[in-house]
Amino acid sequence: MRHRLAHRKLGRTSEHRGALLRNLCTSLIVHERLTTTLEKAKELRPFAERAITLGRRALSADSPEAALHARRLASAYFFAGNTNRIPDGGYKRPRAPRTAGVEALDKLFGEVANRFADRAGGYTRILKLGARKGDGAEMAIIELLGSGKNTVHVEEKKEEKKSRLRFFGRKKKASSDSAKDEKK
């Protein structure tokens, strides 16, 4: 029985599940839109919204210490930022680029926190896409509200005239009038 068990296991150990959620949250904040399975999206939603709430808390903090505390707490929700960073200095040593975790943290405490400053919660949206062809897994898009990228573009299919198939699945040849015009 699964009485009073809160989260999905997603077929992973707890360490692997935590790493998966941190990676998904990092990608969601950086790209503002993510295509994944429905179960992963449902697990990611409260995880990412807690991080966004920490960004909002730092925005409205009274002291810089409280803002720094919220930033350090939020860093646990993202992929580790500077673990492979080369130290600065030295002759002609290039500065290492920022990793995705640092970029996500900067974006969260800048653009995303400002966007959701007046919103009390519900910062994400999940759109169902249907079953994946390979294994039948239910797919979904999870995205941040209010971004310019969140419009779902559905192309309308043009109706084409269907040609009838003749014997053995062969199509009817072009009309004899057009063939004669091409020979002349």
Task: Summarize this structure briefly.
The chain is α+β, with helices and mostly antiparallel strands. It has 5 helices and 3 strands, in the order αβαααββα.
Please, how many helices? 5
Structural class: alpha+beta
- Counting copies of identical and different chains, the oligomeric state is single chain
**What proportion of the residues form beta strands (DSSP E)?**
5-15%
Query: Quick one: overall form?
Result: elongated
User: Rg to the nearest angstrom?
Assistant: 26 Å
The major pleated sheet works out as: 3 strands, antiparallel
Question: What proportion of the residues is helical, as a percent range?
Answer: 40-55%
Low-confidence stretches: none
**Overall average residue pLDDT:** 82
Number of strands: 3
Name the strands of the widest sheet in spatial order.
1-3-2
- List the helices and strands in order: HEHHHEEH
What is the straight-line distance between the termini? 80 Å
